[in-house]
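=== Structural record ===
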Amino acid sequence: MIRKFVPGLMLCFIIISVLFVACAPSATVAPAAPEAPASTLTLTSADPAAYQLNAIDDGRHEFPDGENYEWWYMDASFENGYSFVTAWHFMNAKVSGILVPVRVIQFSIYNPQGNKIAAAPVFMAYNCNASNKSCDVTMGNNHFKGNYPRYDVEFLEGNIGCQLTFENLTQGFRSPPRGITYFSREPERYMGWAVAQPKAKVTGILIVDGKEIPVTGVGYHDHNWGNTMLNDIYSFWHWGRIMSGDYTFIYTVGESSKITGNKPVTGLITFKGHDLVDLSDKLNADYIDLTLDKMTGINYPKTMVMRVESPNVKGTVTNRVKELVESELLPGMKEGAGNGYLRFLSDCDIKLDVKDEKIETNASLIHELIHF
């Protein structure tokens, strides 16, 4: 079932120009200027601790005067077939030349049949607060709070909501020293990314039509911030997470915007059990069997073969699309214009050597493609 763009969520997309609720920037360090080559990322056995999150990394960030954005994100899939996603947005945006604070929570629940119910309440800035010491966000009567190894989220809007606890199954991650990727220096364009919970055990309740549904499952929590709208720094990206046995992988394959040099933006983060074992930008993709999504006008690959050539991880990851589950236009774009967000359910074939351990297995995953 393809779910077309939900009008009630339009404001959330405008919030960062073109935001989807599972946004994920690259694990790659971007060029300091468009003409500069991208830096090479490697993770040595001597420095994994440098990638651990500090509590402050998941707190509110300070910005100079001007436009900026920040959001805290969670998602989870549950054993009973339900899933949910939420993003809590703080933004200062110019409206008719005037800087306006915008505060919105984007919240969706999918039932086992794939149907989506959603809410996107807007709050006055004086009714919102976020600590700069740790993840501690209040918007109205809703709370998003925690630190390693536990986070809690409580949300209620009308007859939809949740009370959930996320407990780390892996360490957190951010690129040292502050998790910031610079896409250019003059002018300064940057984006921050902290993955507080690459994989987490999730327990609690969902609230649907005012009824409480107990849930247990697996989830994810990250946090983004920046001073530049996404369409000014990205052309497109593919992003996804793969959980297979003891391993957790987070990947991104994309390209920076024209004004930032149309550079490859790629990254693969690998966890074994609790620990980070590899980070690399040595990731390339082949796009096979391109298929047109008529609503957005995006040609997407039915098969994507990602090739990894990191010192610690080598091999291929192949996604084969089973179903296009979501197709959404970006704000102000016409159908078929080539700008939009697609979400897929795919079968994934993994053939990797991770530190000389061979992994050959299959998994199912949800992943995304966004074109700006």
User: Anything to note?
Assistant: The chain has a mean pLDDT of 85. The radius of gyration is 19 Å. Helices lie at 10-15. Residues 10-15 form the longest helix (6 residues).
